[in-house]
Amino acid sequence: MTEQKHDATDGKVWNLRLYIAGDSPKSRLALANLERMCERHLPGRYKIDVIDLVKTPELAKAHQILAIPTLVREVPEPIKRVIGDLSDESKALLNLDLDSLTTGSG
């Protein structure tokens, strides 16, 4: 499991888990898109855990992962899931309830 951790400056830290399958182009794209989105909208307030299901396939069933890549937002609750490589940032922000944080910015 690869982990990237950022210190919280203010506000709550978002715990995000990205499920991928090996070092595929789609997996790399999903991680890059997630990191860019977090830096833009949650600077210093997020933690990303990357779970490689090629290395730990038993976690797919245990965590109910049906497609990859899948992003799971564990904190803040409620738990949210986004399937895909996160290329459509506005859709991903909406599904993660991050769009409310970006209203009026830009």
Topology:
Blueprint: E1 2-5, E2 14-20, H1 25-41, E3 46-52, H2 58-62, E4 70-75, E5 80-83, H3 89-95, H4 99-102
Parallel strand pairs: 2-3
Antiparallel strand pairs: 1-3, 2-4, 4-5
How would you describe the overall organization of this protein?
The protein is of the alpha+beta class. It has one domain: Glutaredoxin (3-Layer(aba) Sandwich), CATH 3.40.30.10. Helix content is 31%, strand content 26%. It is built from four helices and five strands, in the order ββαβαββαα. The chain has a five-stranded mixed sheet, covered by helices on one side. Helix 1 links the parallel strand 2 and strand 3. The N terminus is likely disordered.
Low-confidence stretches: 1-10
Oligomer: single chain
CATH fold type: Glutaredoxin
The tally of structural domains comes to 1
CATH H-tier superfamily: Glutaredoxin
Give the mean pLDDT.
Answer: 85
Helix content: 25-40%
Question: Number of helix segments?
Answer: 4
Give the overall shape: globular
The SSE string, one letter per element, is EEHEHEEHH
Summarize the structure.
This protein is of the alpha+beta class and 106 residues long. Helices cover 31% and strands 26% of the residues.
